[in-house]
Write a structure and sequence with these properties.
It comes from Rhodanobacter ginsengisoli. The structure is a single chain. With about 170 residues, the protein is α+β, with helices and mostly antiparallel strands. The chain has two domains: about 1-80, Alpha-Beta Plaits (2-Layer Sandwich); about 80-170, Alpha-Beta Plaits. Helix content is about 30%, strand content about 25%. The chain has helices at about 20-30, 55-70, 80-85, 155-170; strands at about 1-10, 35-40, 45-50, 75-80, 100-105, 125, 130-135, 155. The chain has a four-stranded antiparallel β-sheet with strand order 2-3-1-4, sandwiched between helices. Strands 6-7-5-8 form a four-stranded antiparallel β-sheet. α1 packs across α2 and α3 (about 80-85) runs antiparallel to α4. The longest helix has 16 residues, at about 55-70. It is globular. The model has no long low-confidence stretch (mean pLDDT about 95).
Length: about 170
């Protein structure tokens, strides 16, 4: 059994994509996953499964679309991959709530950062299947636009650390 974390895109953020975490847990169980639990209300599902990552993603996206009536993006990482995302944080000196990892399905193109607009004091770096962003003054007033990140979902390093710890304990 592999320990996974599924990160849903645009769930319970800014009044969009309402999905109670009890319903998300039930969806994970309906997919046949075991040791299913959620973490905070932003669409984080922890579970174990014998399925490979692609099959996990496909099953969750199908069930979520049936439930929501529209596509819901899902990024999947194993417990080890999530720990590696945390360890690879290129801005470890920054506060965890000021650094996000934007999780993607595939590695970002080497040219990804050339397409970024609106940068002020933000720092960016590419990861394996992530884009790291340090928001020096916080996200609230940022005008940063990252086209490659539109298909992904972001979590701050505090959340990544907690998810990595919970996933490792499974």
């Amino acid at each position: 059994m592999t320990s996974y974390v599924a990160l849903l895109r645009a769930v319970n953020v800014g009044g969009t994509g309402k999905l109670p975490m009890g319903e998300l847990k039930a969806i994970g169980e309906a997919a046949g996953f075991t040791d299913v639990r959620t973490y905070i209300a932003s669409g984080n599902l922890l579970f174990t499964s014998k399925l490979a990552e692609k099959a996990v993603k496909t099953a969750l996206e199908r069930l979520l679309q049936d439930h929501a009536g529209k596509p819901v993006g899902v990024m999947v990482r194993t417990a080890a991959e999530l720990a590696a995302v945390l360890a690879a944080n290129p801005f470890p000196e920054a506060a965890g709530n000021r650094v996000v990892a934007i999780f993607l399905d595939a590695p970002p193109a080497a040219t990804t950062l050339r397409d970024v607009t609106g940068a002020k004091d933000e720092r960016l770096a590419l990861g394996r299947r992530e884009i790291y962003v340090h928001y020096g003054d916080g996200m609230a007033d940022s005008r940063l636009k990252i086209p490659a990140g539109k298909a992904g979902t972001a979590r701050n390093m505090n959340t990544v650390a907690q998810l990595a710890e919970l996933a490792a304990a499974r």
